[in-house]
Automatic annotation (TrEMBL):
Gene source species: Myripristis murdjan (pinecone soldierfish)
Transmembrane stretches, start-end: 6-32
Keyword hit for Iron: no
Domain DDE Tnp4: 178-341
Keywords from the UniProt entry: Hydrolase, Membrane, Metal-binding, Nuclease, Nucleus, Transmembrane, Transmembrane helix
Cofactor: a divalent metal cation
Official protein name in the record: DDE Tnp4 domain-containing protein
Subcellular location: Nucleus
UniProt GO molecular function: hydrolase activity; metal ion binding; nuclease activity
GO cellular component: nucleus
Amino acid sequence: LPTLKCAFQICILIAILGNNICMYVVLQIALLSQSFRRKPSVWAFSPASQWWDSIVPGFTNAQWVENFRMSEETLGFLCNKLRPAMEREDTTFRESVPLKKRVAIALWKLATGSEYRSIGHLFGVSVTTVCRCVQDFCAAAETLLVPEQIRLPDEGRFRDMAAHMENRWGLPHCVGAIDGSHIPIIAPQQYHTDYFNRKGWHSLILQAVVDGKGKFWNVFAGLPGSLHDARVLRLSTLWELASRGNLFPPHTRNIGGVTAGYYILGDSAYPLQKWLLKPYHDTGRLTAEQHMFNHKFSRARVVVENAFGRLKGRWRCLLKRNDCDTQLVKSMVLTCCALHNLCEEHGELYEASWDAPETAECEPVAAAAQGVEEQGRDVRNALIHQSSHVQSRPFT
């Protein structure tokens, strides 16, 4: 700018000497405009963020749990876990959104299912920022949190899980229960009929196995809602592991005269296997012992239904029709399952008011014509034999 000013002054002097009054006036105006030129500035829209900056820091522990489904301490733990993948640096043009705020934005989306625009107004950020926070959070969680929170148990944990199930429900060597749940979505543009389930709406399927305490130890998500539960099972890694004999450690136990390995509980939609038991199909001819077994079986299997209820009650984005693309919805589902385990592990409070409203559930359709040879009848019969000799503990 000083060099330009000197050049103007030289031109003015030449103009005066040459009696060129018009040129002198023009140059004076140009010089004046340079003197008052506005300094360059970086453009950035900065909406108000008073709620996050001023009100949230004063939250009690109960308010943190109510709004973000976890205490501030657990949120801090989560930030540290995801820091390598989520933290951003300031640039020349603008300051980055702090990591804690980015995680809080994503948690708010998962906990409420609110629209990006309303979340942006609340946190004082743009819609684009909210969208990126959710995407980055779920991607980071899939990489760093899901493998840690949801993994195949080791031999010691399987032993503990079996002991818990037997002590609570009187089912020896049982290590959990399996079920499927539909996650509502907006109809995709491509192959939308594949996602239309028998309940009458579009969905993705979440298949999960939980232990006796309601924590997920195997999840499989993302297949279209029109698929049968048995078909989803056969397409999952769980089936592949079980088929190869790699699902459970080779630890057997004599049950009613039958050598049995570990097994999980499923409803009538699943094929009967040595590692996957289901109740007796009621044809009207069941014995009293078979009725009693089915009753005990259903009491124990309710643990997976309760886990789904707490999952969707805590992370209510899984209850509403999600308008994100199917890949992001799948990522959100897996992330919510990992967050469920994290909250249960850290002893986070679950409010009864979060429970999802009860909806009419369709009866499971028995697995048929799935090309799977049923096995495990001897184990199921042995459990009846054992139950007739051993008094199980009452349900709690």
